[in-house]
Design goal:
This protein is of the alpha/beta class. It has two domains: 3-189, Ribosomal Protein S5, domain 2 (2-Layer Sandwich), CATH 3.30.230; 211-449, 3-Layer(aba) Sandwich (Rossmann fold), CATH 3.40.50. It is built from 23 helices and 18 strands. The chain has a five-stranded parallel sheet with strand order 11-14-17-10-18. A four-stranded mixed sheet has the order 1-2-4-3. Helix 9 crosses helix 22 and helix 20 (457-463) runs parallel beside helix 22.
């Protein structure tokens, strides 16, 4: 008798179907194939490109089955993981292998996991006593199971809530192998995990910081609002202590909440990294990632032995904040160019090729010069021009050109720091940003775009209609300043967002003029 079960192999933030087949040759069955086995011969072989964790599963499975009180089959056991040319890694195949062995032993006699009524798959790691442990990438397995038409998915209890986020798939939680076997035999009799979607609809921000804490810096506050409303990349430059980091860390508080589609995308990435929190509500907030400038190329972009996501993917649908921007390694910064342009990163290693989504808001902060005081009203910059140029040249022109908005944050005078008037709070600003995002969602509902920042040159021409005065102003600016085609497009994108914040369908001259303020560095002369 050949026993069969279904599971999934994780690759990046995706999952691929794996069919587990078990055949056992004992003295009785071997004779049917014309084979002769030694008395009481016992061996287990796993084939199908398994890694060390998969090969070791035979010992975990044996102990779990015996500890559950079931009979472990005797004979020469062959376990096949198909397709055979797909590399399998991790302990998630423990449970489906154990279910296969239980089926062969007669505990699941005549059970067909591929039947229309009970098309069922399983994933999970077994401990020696039969308890199920959590595994990575469960939500991606659930997405794949639904896409392939499975009705049921058996998962460890610890992973059930994230898998239940996928609609129209019955997620059956199990605490141990005995419960999993019961669910495998009669899935319709088991209670499926139900995800409370009110958690998404009634998302509570609960941030411990607020925009009202930012004193002065009205231009930077306005730039941050525009960036949040359109998803634009933002560069903050100014002297130390001017509030660059303070503002950047408060950007998530004015961003709109994640949609259900975005939440699933983010959870797939975090699950692949093993970072899904126990409290799923923490995932509803848009991510904010702030790696140190010593981060490696694989740490930022992704990689590793099993090709895990990097910081650019962990910041998907959120903010990637790079403080001390020029201090990052040159090759690390240049690697940002492709994801900033395409919204994804394709990692190619010997182990294979994996694509991770990486559509994020880049917020970078830097000083205007190495000492930080170029343009300061009181402190004099002591950096020679050559040193200033070398410092700024650490960030290449093509990378700077991919940042939609450049805003200066000057020294904040005492009067502004001690002003009694309370600035606008995050809630008020967020409402305006949310209104602008809704307009963009409606405008781009039949396209692949989600925000103004994602528009390419052809889409910008289509979705950014200009009034005559605005067109003349833009033409004059492009001609006089010798702006590149990419700069022209990003000015259109920023102006489109400013118009959305003002609830205007057409881009007006004042929108173009405001967008032009964020085009690049102010040229100061070093001391």
């Amino acid at each position: 008798m050949l026993a069969k079960a279904y599971s999934f192999a994780s690759y990046g933030s995706q999952a691929k179907l794996v069919t587990i087949e078990v055949n056992i040759f004992n003295n009785t069955s071997a004779s049917e194939y014309g084979l002769e086995l030694e008395e009481d011969r016992q061996s287990t072989s796993i084939i199908g490109l398994p890694d060390t964790a998969v090969r070791e599963s035979k010992e975990r499975v044996r102990s779990a089955i015996i500890q559950t009180g079931l009979r472990y089959p005797k004979g020469e056991i062959i376990i096949s993981l198909a397709p055979a040319d797909l590399k399998k890694h991790g302990p998630a195949f423990d449970l489906p292998i154990a279910l296969c062995l239980a089926a062969w032993s007669g505990h699941a006699k005549d059970h067909d996991p591929s039947s229309c009524e009970s098309k069922i798959a399983a994933i999970g790691e077994l401990s020696l006593d039969g308890t199920l442990r959590s595994v990575r990438n469960v939500i991606s397995c659930a997405v794949a199971a639904k896409k392939l038409g499975f009705r049921y998915l058996i998962v460890p209890k610890q992973n059930a809530r994230e898998a239940a986020l996928i609609k129209d798939l019955a997620v059956l939680p199990a605490g141990n192998f005995k419960e999993a076997l019961e669910a495998y035999l009669a899935p319709a009799n088991c209670r499926a995990m139900v995800f409370d979607r009110a958690l998404i609809e009634n998302a509570s921000y609960g941030y411990d910081c607020d925009f009202s804490e930012i004193k002065g810096q009205m231009a930077a506050r306005r730039a941050a609002e525009i960036a949040a409303a359109g998803g634009h990349n933002l560069l903050l430059f100014g002297p130390p202590g001017s509030g660059k980091t303070l503002l950047a860390r408060r950007l998530p508080t004015i961003l709109p909440p994640l949609s259900e589609e975005e939440l699933i995308e983010n959870m797939q990435i975090y699950s692949a990294k093993g970072l899904v929190p126990k409290d799923i509500r923490l995932m509803i907030r848009r991510p904010f990632r702030s790696p140190h400038h010593s981060v490696s190329l694989s740490g930022l972009i992704g990689g590793g032995l099993q090709i895990e996501p990097g910081e650019v993917s962990l910041a998907h649908n959120g903010v990637l904040f790079l403080d001390e921007f020029p201090e990052f390694a040159k090759n690390v910064l240049e690697a940002l160019r492709q994801p900033l342009e395409d919204g994804f990163v394709n990692i190619v290693r010997i182990a294979g090729s994996v694509t991770f989504p990486a559509s994020f808001m880049l917020v970078a902060a830097m000083n205007p010069c190495p000492c930080g005081y170029l343009g300061h009203p009181v402190k004099k910059c002591k950096c020679p021009r050559r040193l200033v140029e070398s410092y700024r040249a650490r960030v290449s022109g093509p990378l700077m050109d991919r940042i939609d908005m450049h805003v200066e944050m000057p020294f904040v005078p005492y009067e502004e720091l001690t002003a009694k008037e309370t600035p606008e709070d995050s809630k008020t600003i967020r409402e305006r940003c949310l209104r602008a995002r809704r307009a963009q969602t409606e405008r781009y509902k039949s396209t692949r775009f989600r925000s103004n920042a994602q528009l390419n040159s052809s889409a910008a021409q289509r979705f950014c209609p200009l009034e005559k005065e605005a067109e003349n102003a833009l033409k004059y600016a492009v001609t006089k300043m010798s702006l590149s085609a990419r700069t022209y497009t990003r000015i259109l994108r920023v102006a489109r967002t400013i118009a959305d914040l003002g609830n205007r369908e057409k881009i007006e001259e004042r929108h173009i003029l405001e967008a032009l303020q964020f085009k690049g560095f102010r040229e100061d002369s070093p001391g």
